[in-house]
Amino acid sequence: MGGERIWTAALLVIGDEILSGRTQDRNVAQVAAWMNRQGIRLAEVRIVPDEEERIAAAVNELRRGVDYLFTTGGIGPTHDDITVDSIAAAFAVPVIVHPEARAILEAYYGSRGGLNDARLRMARVPEGAELIPNPLSGAPGVRMDNVYMLAGVPSIAANMLEALNGQLEGGRPMVSVTVGAFAAESEVADLLRETQRAHEGVAIGSYPFAKDGRFGANFVIRSEQGERAQACASDLAGRLTAAGFEPVAGGI
Amino acid sequence: MGGERIWTAALLVIGDEILSGRTQDRNVAQVAAWMNRQGIRLAEVRIVPDEEERIAAAVNELRRGVDYLFTTGGIGPTHDDITVDSIAAAFAVPVIVHPEARAILEAYYGSRGGLNDARLRMARVPEGAELIPNPLSGAPGVRMDNVYMLAGVPSIAANMLEALNGQLEGGRPMVSVTVGAFAAESEVADLLRETQRAHEGVAIGSYPFAKDGRFGANFVIRSEQGERAQACASDLAGRLTAAGFEPVAGGI
């Protein structure tokens, strides 16, 4: 497996509402889980405000270091939707009205009051871009080179991800197996380290929690080879039992 | 108000579990809301994996551009907790055992099985660092220069934020007032733009949603001057009414 190519992605969340604490982001988790299913490793996330220069700079930094850059937010019809302009600036190309996007919006808004200037904003793309279908609400997402612009509303972003399912080249999905225990991390730290050492190609993450006044941790075993992750999980469960802790398959 | 200093912060979330989609992050929202209360503007968030080089590089990029850099995650007792080492590397200083942190852990674990090597890991800090109190579970947070290292478990991070409340120099908290309506963004885009233009020192964000099959949006008016935000909200509500939409104070 050593020579197998690893595909990577980054996510840029564009949104004052996340940075102000007003809105709990839901896109990081859903994009991360989706990437995992495509066999693509999410290597970094950034959240930046609705400012063209900040967006363009982050896009140019991120897109060059990964196979795919996804963005969420800022592709709607209002004055604070500046993702398309910012990404056109990042690529140093003009913004144009995409004829197919215009046709999609005309059809969608035909029975909903027709196309106005604000709605037409959602047909604007950086020159050279393609569309990402959006069966839910008409206005499409946009792909420019390796940059995929999705909506900020999580349900609409989910639809666009669905449309992209299986379309991106990726590797082997990462398999994770979780074992939990009401064990303080500090009591099992050595045991974890030794277990990880005994299993090649496997990483164990330890995620403490407090539940009903008791401390515990979930141990997440990740590998690109499912059998290795399973073997490591069994071994870990055995070691936890031997140390006097009751392992819980699937985590707590 | 033009010359008033704006205080800024960045947040670095350290965690493979977030990037793999396993865990829904809760720290961005709580740190963002806390910053807002301190009058500090959260300017950027990054999420990076548990890799020393990536953490150190992000820390050095971020800490120089803002007044305060907060980190969450990676300060526990297990092998995957490498935040202290990574930040020591970023500052090019050695890691030492902080005598006060050691004393805190000795006291905390005295009745809980005593201090072992794994627990002692939580007394390690970059040389020159100070402690951030953690009333909940003993192990303190760490401050190194303008970098504040908090726990990844949201309830513990919340306690550390509580301990830091009012301790950081900040400006005027941003006031936000929300007005919602079952209006498609594309029907009110011009109205929003005009309202924003009519009110200096105020920014209006528009956040669409789909609820029970109906589309709507919340309009968030933000200003460092509460009266201005309120005046703008009243004006916007009036304009929405005049356009045939029923405004909902506080949002939907």
Give a verbal description of the structure:
- The structure is a homodimer of 252-residue chains.
- The first copy, chain A, folds into two domains: 8-164, Molybdenum Cofactor Biosythetic Enzyme, Chain A (3-Layer(aba) Sandwich); 175-249, 2-Layer Sandwich (Alpha-Beta Plaits).
- In chain A, strand 6 (130-132) and strand 7 (141-144) form a beta hairpin.
- The model of chain A has no long low-confidence stretch (mean pLDDT 94).
- Helices cover 38% and strands 27% of the residues of chain A.
- Chain A is an alpha/beta fold.
- Chain A has nine helices and twelve strands.
- Strand 2 (40-48) of chain A pairs antiparallel with strand 2 (40-48) of chain B.
Portion in helices of chain A? 25-40%
Structural class of chain A: alpha/beta
Total discrete domains of chain A: 2
Strand content of chain A: 25-35%
Name the CATH class of the largest domain in chain A: Alpha Beta
CATH architecture label name of the largest domain in chain A: 3-Layer(aba) Sandwich
Query: Uncertain runs of chain A with pLDDT below 50, 5 residues or more?
Result: none
Number of strands of chain A: 12
Secondary structure elements and pairings:
The structure is a homodimer of 252-residue chains.
Chain A: E1 7-14, H1 16-19, H2 27-38, E2 40-48, H3 52-63, E3 68-72, H4 83-91, E4 95-97, H5 99-110, H6 117-120, E5 124-126, E6 130-132, E7 141-144, E8 147-150, H7 154-164, E9 175-181, H8 185-198, E10 203-211, E11 214-223, H9 226-242, E12 248-249
Parallel strand pairs in A: 1-2, 1-3, 3-8
Antiparallel strand pairs in A: 4-5, 6-7, 7-8, 9-11, 9-12, 10-11
